[in-house]
Structure formats: C-alpha cells, structure tokens
Amino acid sequence: MWKIGNVEIANQVVLAPMAGICNSAYRRIIKEMGCGLITCEMVSDKAIYYGSKKTIDMLAMTEMERPISQQIFGSDTESFVVAAKYIYEHMKPDIIDINMGVQCPK
Ligand SMILES: Cc1cc2nc3c(=O)[nH]c(=O)nc-3n(C[C@H](O)[C@H](O)[C@H](O)COP(=O)(O)O)c2cc1C
After folding, report:
1. Total domains present in the chain
2. Shortest-distance Cα residue to atom 10 of ligand 1
3. Which of 32, 88, 92, 95 is deepest in the core (most CB within 10 A)?
4. Which atom of ligand 1 is nearest to the CA of 97?
5. What is the CATH number of the domain that holds 37?
6. Does residue 105 lie within any of the structural domains?
7. Residue 102 banded pLDDT, cuts 50, 70, 90
8. Which residue range is the domain that position 23 belongs to?
9. How far is the centre of ligand 1, averaged over its atoms, from the C-alpha of 89 (Å)?
10. 12-44 pLDDT, tens per residue?
11. Cβ atoms of 41 and 73 closer than 8 Å
12. Is residue 77 part of a domain?
C-alpha cells in the first residue's frame, strides 16, 4: 500500500497516461490484471471549457477503475480552472494530473 496525498493505492504498478489508448475499456482490462493506479486519456482544458461533447464523453469512468487519475492538458489559467472544477464535480477522479505540455526547441 502507498499513498499520493490521501489516496491509498494498493501497489506500485501505475498505468502510464496515454492519449488514444487509455479509454475506459482498456483501463478496466488493466485494472483486472492488478494495476494499482489507473490513469485516463489526457483531455484538453479548452475542449471542456467550450463544452466539446466528444471530450466530455471521454471523461466517463467506472467505480471499479478507482483509484483513478484524470490528466488535463492546458496552459491558460482561466480555462484550466473551469475544466478542473468541471471534472472534479462531475467525475470525482481521485487525482487530477496537470499536463503543462512539452515545447520542443525550434
Ligand atoms: C501512445 C502514447 C501516448 C501517450 N500519451 C501521454 C499523455 O497523454 N500524457 C502523458 O503525460 N504522457 C503520455 N505518454 C507518455 C507515457 O505516459 C510514458 O511517460 C512514456 O511512454 C514513458 O514510459 P515508457 O518508457 O514506459 O514508455 C504517452 C506515451 C505513448 C506511447
């Protein structure tokens, strides 16, 4: 058992967050295989801010996937706060993971 903040995690096997891979069906298979911490597909703060149905549908998660971490990608404070509050209020993920993006040098 280990903890991130007050979130208790049964073992130290963590699913890497992977855009385009970590949907709910995939996560449930990985959970059944014994993974301790499940992560979701990254979602864009702007997509949630502007109410994109496709992105909101990506937030679906089931109780058996807990503890679960939802990653949000963004760099603008206002839309990020709105998106984080929306996700917290609607999905109650155990962890919100902030992805500030990677900017490659030109
Ligand atoms: C297809 C794919 C999608 C990924 N998407 C994300 C992502 O959305 N957010 C993130 O933080 N990392 C993402 N990553 C990085 C992985 O979470 C992980 O950190 C990286 O693959 C290094 O781990 P590895 O050496 O075990 O591959 C992605 C990696 C892959 C291969």
Report:
1. 1
2. 17
3. 95
4. 11
5. 3.20.20.70
6. no
7. low
8. 2-99
9. 26
10. 999 999 999 999 999 999 999 999 999 999 999
11. no
12. yes
